[in-house]
Amino acid sequence: MSFESLASLVESCSREKKEFWQIVCETDMKESCMTAEQEFTKMRGMWNAMLAAADSYDKNLESSSGLSGGDGGRFAAYIAGGSPLCGDFTGKVIACALQMAESNACMKRIVAAPTAGSCGVLPAVLVPLYRDKKTTENKIIQGLFVSAGIGQIIANRASISGAEGGCQAEIGAASAMAAGTLVFLHKGTAGQIMYAAGFALQNLLGLVCDPVAGLVEVPCIKRNVVGTVNALSCADMALAGIVPKIPADEVIDAMKQVGNCMNTSLKETGYGGLAATQTGKQIAGRLYAAGQPTITVSKTGH
Predict the structure, then answer these.
(1) Structural domains in the chain (count)
(2) pTM above 0.90, yes or no
(3) 164, 202, 219, 250 - which has most CB atoms within 10 Å?
(4) Which residues span the domain enclosing 241?
């Protein structure tokens, strides 16, 4: 996508009197030579894959390392059986984030949004809305164009790779995409979509990528939860009329700078942060002794 800044995309919305998703869709149509119908078919396929991934979650399935599995089921049971501090809807969002990320660790089919390691964030805010009949499939698909636009600008301007920019580039980008999409689904303006994305990204600035044993499980799965809850709060702030002091595009630039300053050990290598703790090393040693793969696998491609 040709846009290099959120500000220029928002300006196009104002100038052409079109919605955020329309500008993204039409721009992609020009670059891909696809029709509007083809664009929607492609995005509907993504949405159906997200729904299928959510529906096929198996609480009894455990990853080959034994580090993850079942927590999504446990949290869903907790929500169903009481009064969670976070409330019913946010509880559903958290459960969905856990389930999606656990499915990734268990090598089930997921949608990289924008990466496999951050696959739980976007569907976690969309699936509960859809299941509770608070939005329609058509609006969800339009919202996914909003997500795509935000993610592509972050990728163009900085990075969405944990190996390049740390987890701020993965969970941060996913949270920004989710926040902006939520604003759209709640009838916010193009400017508010941009504000929400900026809020979400700045809140996760500096988040390192430190997978224990080099696997996309600990702490990656729980960080998907952080990304979803962050997206909810940032969308609400933008919808409330709160305007960030630092423009969203400058936040993206700051994220790139922070990523460039990070030590290599904090960028998906599995040698720093939580991976370097005593327990983290013990887990890696145990898995290595048992013959489990403990090499770092790129979350953008596995």
Answers:
(1) 1
(2) yes
(3) 202
(4) 6-289
